[in-house]
Amino acid sequence: MKQVKFFLLLAAAGVLLLLFRPEGKGGKASADVVKVESVDPLKNPGQPVADYLVFRALTTGEARMAVTGSSVTKGSGASNQSKTWRALTQAHLRTAYPSLKTLKIENHGHSGYTSVRILEDEVTGPIIAGRPDVLIIETSVINNHNKNVSLEDTYASLEQLHALYSEALPEARILFISPNPITENKFGPPVNALGLRFTDYIYGTQTFIGEKGWAYINIHDEMLSLMEQRGIELPETLKDGIHPNDLGYSLWAEVIWPHLTAK
């Protein structure tokens, strides 16, 4: 009986999703036919994050999302919290998907924290208590580089983060992302005490996460590519060499968006 109710609920979600898909040009509904399978995470584990949030909103009454990481996730450098990549992404989701119009992306970014420190109970406890449907983990490797955390300890902490949240939040989608590109700055030398550059952490973690088969977005490289296309110099996007300014955060939000919505 429970199984029958479950499939009836999924069918209802499929019908509702047809009514709440983002509109295309000219205000017309998307021509794509949405089937129940396209919103059922058991049948389509690779579905876009946005579709999964819609599925959760329609089947549980509320979609929940959270982000964790360092100060560039917290939003340091922005003129206002509404200008951060988290807030801009929240606004985009609310606008594009009517069923997500009340979505709130909880912010668990902590200034100065490495990937090891975002494993601390003060960070993980509130995230788990909030039970997000989608959790974005910014790898915090700006701080790992500046604070001389070894690559081995960096990889181990990412593995622990994935294991912790996978067990505590079995229905949550977990997405790792890199931080933004940086320039020389007062927070640390270009080459740290371990002889490593910031980009060694970017590409090392990308390879590690890729080998694990976990979802990952290289925000660093995609922001640089977008800047090149538009003739924007990296220093123009940063407040102090590390933290994005409003322009930097807007570019971050722009590059992450298609990864959350694309089929």
UniProtKB/TrEMBL annotation:
Descriptive protein name: Lysophospholipase L1
Task: Check the record and name the PANTHER family matching this protein.
Answer: THIOESTERASE 1/PROTEASE 1/LYSOPHOSPHOLIPASE L1
What is the top-level taxon of the source organism? Bacteria
Mind telling me which Gene3D superfamilies this protein's record contains? SGNH hydrolase (3.40.50.1110)
| UniProt xrefs under InterPro entries | Ester_Hydrolysis_Enzymes, SGNH_hydro, SGNH_hydro_sf
Q: Pfam families per the record?
A: Lipase_GDSL_2
Q: Which residues form the SGNH hydrolase-type esterase domain?
A: 69-250
Q: To which species is this protein native?
A: Bhargavaea ginsengi
